[in-house]
Amino acid sequence: MTAISNSPSQRAWDTARQSRDQRLSAASPYARGKLASPEDATKLLEAVVRPGDRVCLEGDNQKQADFLAARLAAVDPSVVKDLHVVQSGVVLSEHLDLFEAGIARKLDFSYSGPQGAAIARALKAGKIELGAVHTYIELFSRYFVDLTPHVALTVARAADRDGNLYMGPNTEDSPVVIEATAFKQGIVIAQVNELVDTVPRVDVPGDRVDFVVLAPSHFYVEPLFTRDPAQITETQILSAMLAIKGIYAPYGVKRLNHGIGFNTAAIELILPTYAERLGLKGKIATHFALNPHPTLIPAIETGWVEQVHSFGSEVGMDDYMRARPDIFFAGRDGSMASNRMYCQSAGLYATDLFIGSTLQIDLQGNSSTFTRDRIAGFGGAPNMGSDPRGRRHASDAWLKAGREAAGDARALPRGRKLVVQIVETFGDKMAPTFVESLDSIELAKSLDLALPPVMIYGDDVSHIITEEGMANLLLCRTPYEREQAIRGVAGYTDVGRARDRKTVEELRARKVIQRPEDLGIDPLNANKSLLAARSIKELMHWSGDLYDPPHKFRNW
Predict the structure, then answer these.
(1) pLDDT tens digits for range 425-449
(2) What CA–CA distance (Å, rounded) separates 16 from 53?
(3) Which of 110, 252, 300, 543 gives the lowest tally of CB atoms within 10 Å of its CB?
(4) What gap in Å lies between CA 20 and CA 550, rounded to an integer?
């Protein structure tokens, strides 16, 4: 029998708080109150960051704590070393400098974008110990379970002397990062563009922020979601027509999320033209979980769009969003409020459709943006592009997709999210989009990854659209039918040319595969006259000159 002691435990229950107090004491020579000078930022970091700490250096695919990133990369690696970096985006070269210098050792992240090739090289060279590549919401969730940061380096537009932070439209990841860190006795340091007496609105209360550093220049933010209409091709317009007439209209999709890319930009720009002529206004595409895409401006101005909640902001859109509070979520100060955690949840549970592009699709419909030499990360696509099994509210689109997937009228009624991959059969440099096996499978083997990095699993995909037509995978009843449906829209790729023509024609007769002509679409009508705006300058005009495009998109 095991004896149960009634004596009080001798364990100390506030070690994290004691550690925090020691760090704050060590940092005190480098700050006056909460304010630290930019010249002392490196010393401040050496005082508060301990070897082996989990550190979140905030930055996703948009705003970046670039000054603090550079200061962290400049610390003495004999003092600060073996860090476990837990952050959404590995986007800046300074992020990888941490690993080259031995300041950081382990990495858990979501998105890498421009550093994808460099991360692959660093992994192969043994410079990085990879924890996992997460989705955004997955990593945010782990901040509250087993990846809670000891130190968070965040970024804001402004702060007051009490540490209250104003993020403006770029709130993004900050609230979730700071809450996880601050309430588990971690240290929060913010770089800001300016110090003010009173912030326009409090996005993060000052009692969650330990130090504020006035950066010498405004933080870096990437205009990631801007697509110039002039670059949209007729093939992409044809695919957009297929999406609207083949999916949006018959399912009556009102609540949706668009991935990033020219295909979805084309859809947004033909809502006020092509979809208007089809009589679909008010029947489709009214409520979005979406970053403020400039290509959505004509649809907003013509009354198509009723509401948009955003993961983050977009460069140049501030004044336009401020002037459209009926459409965008805005604070009492008038500026738009974004939140990546909230919008990821909205996109997962409150929308009926996700549509986006990818680099590769295999014969089961699995897709990935990882290649043999590039680890691009996932971002939010795997969550947006998945069927949430925990959803319990109905909509016409969700129920119709569920009925098609079940194929049995006697089955218990269940819904199904529409997950659409819209791609061209050949991508950049004529690389085939459709492959027998994803490059990411080989990549996983070469790096000894426990889990092959698949962006969207095939059993979540409901439709695939290419310039050749549309495959409705919900209507496939066997793995062979599914494979042939994918081959049937894979064009002249090796995958497409290996199709069973008889089976493909049978699938077409059952409307599993639909060509443009089956939907009454003449490819010759897919031209730029359908775009509500054909240039960035025309988007400006649609906005009443409230949209202020970044200089890289101005050619006038």
Answers:
(1) 999 889 999 999 999 998 888 888 8
(2) 12
(3) 252
(4) 41
In the chain, the amino acid numbered 313 is: S
End-to-end CA distance of the chain: 85
Spatial distance between the Cα atoms of 526 and 522, rounded to a whole number of angstroms: 7
Instruction: Using pLDDT thresholds of 50, 70 and 90, give the confidence band for residue 411.
Output: confident
**390 close to 454: Cβ distance less than 8 angstroms:** no
Please name which of 316, 166, 239 lies closest in space to residue 519, comparing C-alpha atoms. Answer: 239
Amino acid at 315: V
Residue 457, amino acid: Y
Which residue is it, tokens 């760090």? Answer: 23
What is the DSSP pairing of strand 151-159 with strand 187-195?
Answer: parallel
> Which of 395, 344, 307 has its CA nearest to residue 60?
344
133 neighbors 109 (Cβ within 8 angstroms): yes
Counting residues of the chain whose pLDDT is more than 70, the rounded percentage is: 99
User: What is the C-alpha separation between 278 and 107, in angstroms, rounded?
Assistant: 49
Here the tokens at position 102 are 């031995």
What is residue 490's three-state secondary structure? coil
Q: What is the pLDDT of residues 467-489, one digit of tens each?
A: 999 999 999 999 999 999 999 99
Residue 273: burial class (beta carbons within 10 Å; 0-12, 13-18, 19+): middle
Residue with tokens 């901040």: 143
Q: What distance in Å separates the CA atoms of residue 83 and residue 532, rounded to the nearest whole number?
A: 50
